[in-house]
């Protein structure tokens, strides 16, 4: 494991963070399937990996077990709740480590921080759901632009739209995705 992939004792999934990343995707916590497989966004209905390719953020279709290869594409991964797994509905305020998350983002200093779903963004930004919209946010975190994206989780399929993901991809790559 490289330094960017160390899994501190108790973390469900290791961070994929290092200096110089274009974008870091932040989830709320590892889902049950991800915890079992030891890989990010591993649930059978999760759209994360296909969407990375579809929007042009990666040149080929990756699978969850490829998560360690993302830095070669300028992409990192983390969660706000590192020591729990399961559905977001089971999360409590004490599960979130916002200070630790902010320190990890400051240390890696990505250009863009993209929240995969509103729940993680709410915890970090302290904004209630009704006041939080998808897309680029006015605030920054540790110098990184912030985007809030519809969750790729199958459980959130009713809220799905690829448009904010395409907007993010355009900001990251400077090109319009198909």
Textual characterization of the structure:
- By secondary structure, the chain is α/β, with parallel strands linked by helices.
- 24% of the residues lie in helices and 16% in strands.
- The protein is built from five helices and five strands.
- A five-stranded mixed sheet has the order 2-1-3-5-4.
- The longest helix is centred in the middle third of the chain and has 11 residues, at 98-108.
- The chain is globular and about 40 Å long.
- The N and C termini lie far apart (35 Å).
- 37% of the residues are buried.
- Mean pLDDT is 89; it is low at 1-6.
Strand proportion, as a percent range, falls in 15-25%
Q: How is the largest sheet built, in terms of strand order?
A: 2-1-3-5-4
Q: Strand tally, please?
A: 5
Radius of gyration: 15 Å
- Mean pLDDT equals 89
Order of helices and strands: EHHEHEHEEH
Largest sheet: 5 strands, mixed
Number of helices: 5
List its salient traits.
178 residues; alpha/beta; 5 helices
Summary of the model, kept short:
The protein is an alpha/beta fold and 178 residues long. The chain has helices at residues 32-37, 48-54, 98-108, 118-125, 163-173, and strands at residues 23-27, 75-79, 112-116, 135-141, 144-149.
Question: Could you outline the blueprint of secondary structure elements for this entry?
Answer:
Elements: E1 23-27, H1 32-37, H2 48-54, E2 75-79, H3 98-108, E3 112-116, H4 118-125, E4 135-141, E5 144-149, H5 163-173
Parallel strand pairs: 1-2, 1-3, 3-5
Antiparallel strand pairs: 4-5
């Amino acid at each position: 494991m490289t330094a960017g992939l160390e899994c501190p004792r108790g973390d469900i999934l290791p961070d994929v963070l290092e200096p110089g990343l274009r974008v870091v995707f932040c989830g709320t916590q590892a889902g049950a399937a991800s915890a079992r497989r030891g890989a990010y966004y591993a649930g059978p209905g999760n759209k994360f990996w296909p969407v990375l390719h579809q929007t042009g953020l990666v040149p080929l279709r990756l699978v969850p077990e490829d998560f360690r290869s993302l830095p070669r594409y300028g992409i990192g991964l983390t969660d706000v709740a590192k020591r729990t797994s399961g559905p977001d509905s089971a999360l409590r305020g004490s599960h979130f480590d916002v200070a630790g998350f902010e320190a990890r983002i400051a240390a890696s200093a990505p250009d863009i921080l993209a929240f995969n779903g509103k729940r993680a963004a709410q915890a970090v930004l302290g904004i209630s759901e009704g006041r939080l919209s998808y897309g680029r946010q006015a605030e920054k975190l540790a110098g990184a632009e912030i985007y809030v994206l519809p969750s790729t989780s199958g459980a959130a399929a009713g809220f799905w739209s690829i448009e904010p993901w395409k907007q993010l991809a355009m900001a990251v790559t400077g090109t319009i995705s198909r």
